[in-house]
Amino acid sequence: xxxxxxxPDWRDRLxxxxxxxxxxxxxxxAWELRDGVPRYASIAPQMAQARRIHLGARELERxxxxxxxxxxxxxxxxxxxxxxxxxxxxPDGLRRMLALAFAVAPPPPRATPPAPGMLAGVGLGVIRAWxxxxxxxxxxxxxxxxxxxxxTGRARYRRGDFAYLxxxxxxxxxxxxxxxxxLVGTILAYMGAVQLALFGASIYIADLVGIGVVREVAAxxxxxxxxxxxxxxxxxxxxxxxxxxxxxxxxTLGVSPIDYLVLPRMLALICMVPLLTLYAxxxxxxxxxxxxxxxxxxxxxxxxxxxxxxxxLKHFAVGLVKGTxxxxxxxxxxxxxxxxxxxxxxxxGESTTSAVVLGILLITISASVLTxxxxxxxx
Length: 379
Known about the structure:
- By secondary structure, this protein is of the alpha/beta class.
- Helices cover 66% and strands 8% of the residues.
- 32% of the residues are buried.
């Protein structure tokens, strides 16, 4: 073993002497992470015949964890080959750090559970959904009790927060609601016009778009938009408060988090979603009118009269009822997942995703049920 066996960039930081059976590794110069960490593996083959390794320092100026890591790698390799290591020539600080490094055994590698198959995944999803129902029912009961306290004036919340929530879920959602409603109205107009034009009945685009948008599509699209926008925001806000233990602080102060956090959010959505649904219906009708007039040569006056004759008050009532239900379900899903959030940043992300999925699922189920109920009632 001699100095020439070292890589060129090591020679100002490490010296080797002694025989192949008892080599000596001497740290020198500066050992700092910013200068790069020498890898013991590159000189390990030169230690293959060693029976005793001497570790020491000569003219060592300064060192940090890079020196500890290098020496730990030497010792770890020597122990694996039953080679004795002499550390007596190392500085006291390095010896203490090495003792700490080997004081605790490294944790055993964690076994990765095998990924469940498709059938097992479906089964696990069903089990999780089934176990989630009691928590949802309990949360719904707490909201009803909180609503009772609100009606009797005993609920504790800040009116300023409620006004901010109204602004957040209402006026600030208008741009995205306008865009989506206009595009959906355009799609409906094109879909209907292609078929109606075969019978020379393009004027009935007004009936198709008007009834379809006001009765079903406006409420459905508004609900889905709010599930992704507002429901996710609710879950993230309340989940972050759960992580920061702010909800625990509210309970400690005797303030119900349902009254203070959940109920204002639910009321804000229930108040604003019907208005957004009505607005989305008007935008969808205007989009259908634009396509009918510009593409299919339908007169504006004829389209307007046909829309008025097709729409009845019950169509608006059905759309507003559905929109209100969808808004309540979006708020329920967002607040529920926020209150169920764990105590980590990852849990906040998972709660946000789960709130959006649950909100859209509840909207879809309620849309099907309400459509059947209204049809049976002849509305």
